[in-house]
């Protein structure tokens, strides 16, 4: 659909005609999503203040010219961009009368002519030419009898234009004859005409409302047809147009009617009730026929065809105030522009599209309809119209190589070439898996599901299909020669379309795409990796295999030859049959591929990259590493090939004559000679052979040419068909039978006989004479024999006599001619009575000629055995000798066999000698011969047989030689077996390693060698491989024997760090980071910073990489590394370091600017402040307001350091840091300024100022003033502290009691610990201080005070009472100290021997054992027993033992006996004490057994 918007404002223009508003600006836009968009581009012709109707507009089919005409009868010509290029006035039919108007103008289909229909009964055709500068002239004119009302020019009828007349006739003007004829006649005025979309039909609308259709004669329409297809009631169809979808007609009845192309009634849109709609004046379909625009008064009406619903609908009706009637409409051929002409004479251009899209920033797609897209190159401005011929919607467009288009529709595929503007559309169902290849400029190759399809551009069908799995531009070659725009032409004007592709990896199929026949199938023995047909006639195929061997296949002769044994680049020179290839360091050029052995060689130092051919030069581009070097080829030699293919032999001669005679040009002369001979161009052939130095052939051709010329002069014609000339050329080609046939066909028998006689072919002459029964046959034979004798051709003469049966004379002639063998053959063949003398002469001649075998046969025939045997052996005819020996001397056969073998070996026929040595039983010679003949399997069989029962050392050299062969021929299993048999397993291992079969090598080494030998061998082999630079193989050997460090060191020495890292990460992970670091340092030393950075990062030492870049002042790299790995903070540090460097070189401001450039405003500010550049810092702070206080603060500190205190105060205040200003003044003891600042800006600091001033007073010993200030500041404790420091105890206590009673204890503490005489030296003083501590809640100090009273200070009872206070306080107020305090007091009581009290305290803190110790020390045994019984049962026995020991130590035996009943111990105690009465009495009473013992002791005393 179309949408239209316009600016209806008039601004300041108030002219009488309203066209000015439209002249200034109009805006077209889409009505809805997917609708066609019209955008106002420019005004081509300004409207006037009055009526100046634009009567007609026409746009040429090639879109380069636009023509408009109006009431002024002047044709205005514009280019495709709407720029006016030319104008011309129309001519009247009668120069005397100029009262006419131009009804219609129309461009011809070829865009070079313009038809002008005028109301003065004439149609002019102006020839405009192809260029704006071409002269314009009237080439045709058709005068009529009535006014011409309308005109059209069917696109398929370039020489026929159709026009309608006021009298109702519709005529056609024939440009060639300059005559007009009537197509059909009606009785009604022709008001409108429209050409059909097919280019072979037209519509006419008439005043009576009828609509006629006319169709010209075409292939599908055998004769012209005209018919009335519709009738518009009560209206003349002035607005008439025909598009692909249907026909539209409208007029002054304000009704729009649609029909299909056959005139079937369609839809009707009636606007009779709409007062805004006036009469319709014009209509125009867009080129796709999917939309139509109708002009009305002050408005456009737009209708669109909906394919799904198959109906028309009004999609837009837009009013444009002050536009007035639209009188003319015209579309550009691609549908991207619409030209509108109005009643006021204005002509405006609008851009039209459904939508626009950019493709990768290189092309612009303009969708002018669903099935038509304009593709424009943004770089060159080139345009191409992509259109579906069947009207399918274009879904997707892709552009490949900036040149080739691929577009998909639901049921077709569109392909195009932007360079040649050729398009194709083929039926296709796209799956999205297709692959497109555009290496050939003439065809697109599409690969889908294993099938290759070829589509030729500008052809709407698939050219060919082929099944292949090998889709690559290097494995498919297509050559096409058809059309004038092709780069080359086929011979004989026949279209050439040939394709070569791979059937499988080793088979090439060459197919003729025109006839669909297979031209050749090339089977190769190795995988093919490149192929290409020659460009001109596609009769030769170049291909290369994986072995890098280059082959040339001649399709005509079906023959293959090898061009190069090694080729790493090959290509045909563009548009010629010259081959360029590279063989390592040689550039090979075949200027004449017909002579493959003629090759031009150039030494080069690099690799060929490309071949360029332009501007008469052909260059081979070679990449030599540092730069690209051009090697220019001989353009003359290259052009020669093209001339040869076009059969332009004279031009080829001219080209070659300008070149020096070299091997290459000599080959070309020979090629030209062969081609000219083949095509019977004898003058050129004569010239070629003359240049080649073939004088005889050249003179012969000269004679033939003269014969041809004479015959032509006598008989007329070109003379080349003269039979004598044909026979002569057949003779030159050695086609004597053909020459004979030509002469005989023309009754020239004598000439044929003379031909053979001239060539001394008398036998052929005699044969022909006998066949034709010539009367002089005998004379010919006699003459032939005499001629043979005279020319000493005894052999021929003998053969002649032999055929006639004269054997003795024949033998004589054979012997005379030295042909003893033939003489002997006559004897053997023809049994006759030959004389002994003759036979002896034959034998002598045979022996003299060395034909001993023949002599032996003759001797044998004569029955002479021994001479025959000697002759056979002398002539080495051992077969005959052995046959003779078998009959006559069997014992001689073995010797003859060995002798035969020795002779064969001497003749280098070693393979034939083997069997003879075997027959002779000589195994050694047989084995040696088999090896020399390279019959290795046979040699191995013989060796195995000979080794049975023989000395083992006999076979070792043979096995080693055999193994060496097998290893060389890569028969590894046989070689391994032979090496093992020869006792050299290490050579088998080396063989496998050289071949890369490490598993097999390891198997042999493991099975046949010890571990030590295996390790040494592998290391040695690895070192050899390392020297050969086969590092991968060496690594495998090192790793097999676990010599990882050697492998790592190998890569390290060669600086192959990636491999080194791989091994380290696999086998030495603990050294991985160190390895990364080492490699990075190596690269850093070499200056390869990128690599160094990579390895530093891998080693997780990115800081080292950053430092490396910083040291080299490569700040960008340092910043990149810091940002990538260290984050924002590290990045800022690097930028800061760079700023420091800039500061050293360019000053502080440069450093700050650098920081600001990186967006580090805060760092820049800090940097500027750090370098005291406060002004710049404040400027930067305009973007970081929060940094202003910090800047003012730093500036204030700097001013303070410079002792500019007043300025510093201002900056502190600006930084909102009055506290800092106060501190500054306090530091300077400027109390007045400090107090002023505090009172004005920080009243919370007033007390601090007072405190500082008071402290200053204390330093000046003005304690009274200081006390007052301290108290005003609410800091009485500081006054107390000051008095305490001055040892003014009373003053301190006074202040404490008045202002801070809680500090009284601290005052005493300070005095207690101070120097000099204390205030708490006596126990009473200490107790008083302790009570103060207790009263003030300082219980810990109170406890310490109580405990500070020692044992010597008071009586024990008093001390125990004092210490009890500390225990009481600890129990109530310092429970965390309770245990320690009790322990301390208990210890002191124990030291004072107040054991019972100490024990009770220990029991209070759950220390029964310590309590037990106190009971033991105080000898309180009952309490000890009670404690043990209740809390320490395990110590009961220990208590008793201690008690017993106590009694023993006191010597209280009675108590011991009483309390412990320990009789034995009591007895001992009584005995030691000398109390024998108690002892003996106790023993007698309680221990009778011990009584004798003690009686004896007592007796001794």
What does this structure look like?
It is built from 58 helices and 56 strands. It is α+β, with helices and mostly antiparallel strands and 1501 residues long. A hairpin with a 3-residue loop joins strand 12 (160-165) and strand 13 (169-174). Helix 54 packs antiparallel against helix 55 (1453-1460). The N and C termini lie far apart (156 Å). The relative contact order is 0.02.
Compact summary:
The chain is α+β, with helices and mostly antiparallel strands and 1501 residues long.
Spatial order of strands in the largest sheet: 1-2-29-28-27
User: What is the approximate shape?
Assistant: flat
The stretches of 5 or more residues where confidence is low (pLDDT under 50) are: 1-34, 483-493, 1313-1320
Structural class: alpha+beta
Helix share of residues?
A: 40-55%
What percentage of amino acids are in beta strands? Answer: 15-25%
Number of helices: 58
For the termini, the CA-CA separation is: 156 Å
What is the CA-atom radius of gyration, in angstroms? 64 Å
The biggest beta sheet reads: 5 strands, mixed
Rounded mean pLDDT is 79
């Amino acid at each position: 659909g179309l949408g239209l918007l316009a600016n209806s404002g008039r601004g300041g223009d108030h002219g009488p005609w309203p066209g000015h508003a439209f002249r200034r600006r109009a805006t077209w836009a889409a009505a809805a999503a997917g609708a066609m968009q019209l955008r106002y581009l420019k005004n081509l012709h300004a409207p006037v203040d009055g009526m100046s109707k634009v009567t007609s507009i026409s746009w040429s089919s090639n879109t380069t010219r636009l023509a408009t005409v109006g009431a002024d009868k002047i044709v205005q010509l514009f280019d495709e961009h709407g720029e006016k290029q030319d104008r011309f006035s129309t001519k009247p039919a009668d120069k005397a009368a100029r009262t006419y108007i131009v009804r219609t103008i129309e461009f011809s289909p070829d865009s070079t002519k313009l038809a002008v229909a005028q109301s003065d009964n004439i149609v002019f055709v102006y020839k405009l030419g192809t260029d704006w500068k071409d002269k314009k002239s009237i080439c045709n004119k058709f005068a009529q009898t009535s006014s011409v009302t309308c005109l059209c020019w069917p696109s398929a009828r370039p020489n026929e234009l159709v026009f309608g007349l006021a009298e109702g006739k519709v005529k056609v003007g024939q440009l060639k004859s300059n005559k007009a004829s009537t197509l059909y006649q009606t009785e009604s005025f022709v008001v409108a005409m429209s050409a059909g979309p097919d280019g072979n039909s037209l519509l006419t609308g008439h005043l009576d409302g009828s609509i006629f259709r006319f169709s010209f004669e075409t292939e599908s329409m055998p004769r012209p047809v005209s018919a009335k297809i519709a009738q518009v009631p009560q209206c003349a169809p002035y607005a008439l147009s025909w598009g692909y979808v249907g026909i539209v007609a409208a007029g002054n009845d304000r009704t729009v009617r649609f029909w299909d192309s056959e005139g079937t009634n369609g839809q009707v849109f009636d606007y009779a009730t709409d007062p805004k709609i006036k009469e319709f004046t014009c209509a125009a379909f867009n080129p796709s026929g999917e939309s139509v625009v109708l002009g009305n008064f002050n408005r456009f009406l737009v209708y669109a065809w909906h394919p799904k619903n198959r109906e028309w609908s009004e999609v837009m009706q837009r009013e444009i105030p002050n536009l007035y009637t639209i009188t003319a409409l015209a579309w550009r051929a691609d549908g991207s522009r619409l030209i509108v002409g109005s009643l006021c004479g204005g002509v405006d251009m609008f851009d039209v599209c459904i939508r626009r899209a950019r493709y990768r920033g290189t092309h612009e797609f303009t969708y002018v309809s669903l099935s038509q897209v304009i593709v424009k190159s943004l770089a060159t401005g080139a345009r191409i119209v992509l259109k579906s011929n069947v009207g399918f919607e274009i879904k997707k467009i892709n552009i490949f190589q900036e040149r080739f288009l691929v577009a998909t529709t639901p049921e077709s595929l569109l392909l195009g070439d932007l360079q040649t503007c050729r398009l194709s559309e083929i039926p296709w169902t796209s799956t999205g898996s297709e692959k497109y290849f555009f290496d050939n400029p003439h065809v697109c190759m599409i690969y889908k599901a294993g099938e290759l399809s070829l589509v030729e551009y500008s052809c709407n069908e698939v050219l060919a299909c082929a099944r292949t799995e090998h889709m690559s531009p290097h494995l498919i070659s297509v050559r096409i020669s058809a059309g004038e725009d092709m780069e080359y032409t086929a011979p004989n004007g026949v279209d050439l379309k040939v394709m070569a592709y791979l059937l499988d990896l080793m088979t090439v199929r060459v197919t003729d795409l025109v006839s669909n026949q297979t031209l050749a199938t090339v089977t190769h023995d190795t995988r093919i990796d490149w192929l290409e047909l020659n460009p001109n006639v596609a009769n030769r195929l170049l291909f290369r295999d994986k072995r890098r061997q280059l082959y040339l296949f001649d399709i005509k002769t079906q023959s293959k030859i090898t061009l190069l044994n090694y080729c790493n680049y090959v290509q045909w020179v563009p548009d010629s049959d010259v081959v360029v290839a590279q063989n390592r360091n040689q550039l090979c050029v075949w200027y004449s591929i017909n002579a493959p052995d003629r090759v031009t060689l150039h030494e080069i130092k690099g690799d060929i990259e490309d071949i360029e051919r332009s501007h008469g030069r052909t260059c081979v581009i070679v990449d030599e590493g540092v730069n690209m070097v051009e090697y220019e080829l001989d353009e003359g030699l290259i052009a020669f090939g093209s001339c040869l293919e076009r059969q332009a032999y004279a031009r080829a001669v001219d080209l070659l004559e300008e070149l020096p005679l070299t091997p290459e040009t000599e080959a070309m002369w020979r090629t030209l000679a062969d081609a000219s001979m083949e095509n019977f161009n004898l003058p050129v052939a004569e010239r070629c052979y003359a240049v080649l130095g073939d004088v005889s052939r050249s003179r012969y051709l000269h004679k033939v040419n003269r014969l041809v010329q004479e015959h032509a002069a006598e008989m007329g014609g070109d003379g080349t068909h003269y039979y004598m000339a044909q026979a002569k050329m057949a003779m030159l080609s050695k086609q004597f039978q053909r020459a004979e046939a030509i002469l005989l066909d023309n009754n020239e028998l004598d000439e044929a006989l003379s031909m053979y006689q001239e060539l001394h072919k008398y036998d052929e002459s005699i044969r022909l004479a006998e066949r034709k029964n010539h009367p002089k046959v005998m004379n010919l034979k006699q003459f032939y024999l005499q001629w043979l004798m005279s020319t000493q051709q005894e052999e021929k003469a003998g053969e002649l006599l032999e055929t006639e049966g004269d054997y003795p004379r024949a033998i004589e002639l054979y012997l005379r001619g030295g042909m003893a063998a033939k003489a002997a053959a006559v004897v053997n063949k023809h049994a006759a009575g030959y004389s002994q003398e003759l036979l002896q002469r034959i034998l002598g001649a045979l022996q003299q000629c060395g034909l001993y075998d023949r002599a032996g046969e003759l001797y044998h025939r004569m029955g002479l055995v021994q001479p025959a045997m000697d002759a056979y052996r002398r002539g080495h005819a051992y077969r005959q000798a052995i046959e003779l020996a078998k009959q006559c001397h069997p014992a001689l056969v073995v010797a003859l066999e060995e002798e035969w073998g020795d002779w064969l070996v001497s003749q280098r026929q070693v393979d034939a000698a083997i069997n003879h040595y075997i027959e002779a039983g000589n195994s050694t010679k047989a084995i040696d011969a088999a090896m020399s003949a390279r019959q290795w399997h046979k040699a191995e069989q013989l060796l195995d047989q000979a080794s049975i029962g023989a000395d083992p050392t006999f076979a070792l050299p043979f096995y080693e030689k055999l193994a060496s062969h097998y290893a060389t021929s890569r028969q590894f299993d046989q070689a391994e077996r032979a090496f093992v048999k020869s006792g050299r397993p290490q050579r088998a291992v080396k063989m496998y390693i050289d071949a890369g079969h490490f598993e097999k090598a390891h198997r042999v080494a493991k099975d046949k060698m010890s571990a030590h030998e295996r390790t040494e061998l592998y290391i040695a082999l690895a070192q050899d491989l390392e020297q050969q630079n086969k590092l991968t193989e060496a690594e495998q050997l090192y790793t097999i024997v676990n010599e990882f460090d050697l492998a790592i060191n190998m890569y390290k020495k060669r600086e192959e760090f990636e491999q080194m890292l791989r091994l380290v990460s696999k086998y030495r992970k603990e050294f991985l980071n160190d390895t990364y670091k080492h490699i990075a340092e190596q690269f850093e030393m070499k200056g390869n910073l990128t690599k160094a950075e990579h390895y530093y990062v891998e080693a997780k030492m990115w800081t080292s990489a950053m430092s490396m870049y910083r040291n080299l002042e490569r700040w960008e790299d340092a910043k990149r590394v810091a940002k990538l790995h260290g984050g924002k903070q590290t990045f800022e540090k690097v930028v800061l370091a760079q700023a420091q460097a800039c500061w050293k070189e360019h000053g502080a401001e440069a450093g700050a600017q650098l920081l600001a450039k990186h967006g580090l405003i805060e760092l820049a500010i800090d940097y500027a402040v750090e370098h005291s550049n406060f002004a710049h810092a404040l400027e930067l702070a305009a973007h970081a307001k929060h940094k202003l206080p910090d800047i003012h603060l730093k500036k204030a500190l700097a001013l303070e350091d410079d002792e500019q205190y007043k300025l510093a105060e201002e900056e502190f205040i600006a930084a909102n840091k009055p506290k800092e200003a106060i501190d500054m003044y306090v530091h300077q003891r400027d109390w007045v300024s400090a107090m002023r600042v505090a009172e004005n800006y920080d009243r919370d600091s007033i007390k601090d100022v007072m405190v500082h001033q008071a402290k200053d007073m204390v330093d000046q010993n003005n304690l009274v003033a200081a006390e007052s200030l301290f108290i005003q500041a609410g800091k009485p404790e500081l006054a107390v502290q000051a008095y305490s420091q001055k040892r003014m105890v009373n003053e301190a206590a006074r202040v404490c009691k008045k202002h801070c009673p809680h500090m009284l204890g601290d005052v005493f503490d300070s005095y207690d610990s101070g120097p000099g005489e204390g205030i708490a030296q006596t126990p009473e003083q200490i107790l008083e201080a302790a009570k103060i501590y207790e009263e003030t809640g300082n219980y810990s100090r109170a406890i310490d005070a109580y405990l500070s009273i020692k044992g010597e200070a008071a009586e024990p009872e008093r001390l125990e009472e004092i210490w009890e206070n500390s225990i009481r306080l600890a129990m109530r107020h310092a429970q965390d100290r309770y245990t320690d305090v009790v322990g301390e007091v208990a210890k002191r009581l124990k030291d004072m021997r107040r054991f019972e009290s100490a024990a009770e305290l220990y029991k209070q803190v759950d220390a029964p054992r310590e309590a037990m110790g106190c009971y033991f020390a105080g000898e309180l045994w009952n309490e000890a027993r009670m404690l043990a019984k209740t809390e320490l049962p395990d110590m009961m026995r220990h208590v008793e033992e201690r008690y017993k020991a106590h009694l023993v130590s006191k010597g209280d035996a009675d108590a011991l006996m009483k309390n412990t009943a320990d009789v034995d111990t009591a007895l001992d105690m009584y005995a030691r004490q000398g109390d024998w009465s108690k002892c003996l009495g106790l023993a007698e009473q309680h221990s009778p057994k011990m009584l004798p013992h003690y009686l004896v002791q007592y007796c001794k005393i």
